[in-house]
User: Fold this.
Amino acid sequence: MRDFSGALRQMSLNTATVRRQSDLLGIIEACARHGIPAISPWRDQVAAVGLGNAGRAIRQAGLKLSGYCRGGMFPASGEHLAAAHDDNRRAVDEAAALGAPCLILVAGGLPQFSRPGSHASKDLGGARTMIEDGIGRLLEHARTAGLPLAIEPLHPMYAADRAAVNTLAQALDIAAKLDPGQTGALGVAVDVYHVWWDPDLQAGIERAGREGRLLAHHVCDWLVPTKDLLNDRGMMGDGVIDLPGIRAAVEAAGYDGLCEVEIFSNHWWSEPIDAVLTTCIERFQTVV
Ligand code: ZN
Assistant:
């Protein structure tokens, strides 16, 4: 397993971690100041400062990217289906323009939550079919752009509203069906927050490595109790996830890319940006 205790060569910061403290340009400046070598920005943060400005600032600061957040939310009905596809194509183009190594896909849940205004449905199986169709359609555009897509399975508590892809095995099955040649165009993101509970996690990580699908590794922690389904992720070391155990498995399966700190937390959003980044770095070096 790689040694993270010294230089921060493998650390990336998901910019949502400090989204309430600063705009993207301020976050880029803070990362450079703290010696964090990479980020994964969100589309809304990029849009707020302009794609050109974001790209320039990233290059000038010498930052790498570990991904671009995010595409997806595929289930939709009526005109929302075409709008979803167009929106996802734009996400691919933005990621390619920024030089991101992959576009993270949060697949979407039931149509009325994925794309508000869509017809309400309880057909989760149907939503999963729409997810496959949507990824399949987007894959053609992503291949042309030379931009890999990373399906991120989400914890099943988000199945209704955020992602009906809930395990690594399910994500890998979709990838195998849509990209049977294992071309590198379609893979998975292993976010510890979403997969730590899965009894088949080890097998899933090994399979992802074997099939050449490991595109991203995200870390935070699972707090007990969790007070908010979306915005109470823990700082690494404050919860119950075996972070070194999962990282060892991911690296043994062949992943040698950046390790991305991604914390959506009402608590950490209320702290000063420098305190948050200092804590992220210290924990990255000691408990990840
Ligand atoms: Zn993630």
Notes: Strands lie at 11-14, 38-40, 64-65, 68-72, 103-106, 149-151, 186-191, 214-219, 259-261. The chain is about 45% helix and 10% strand.
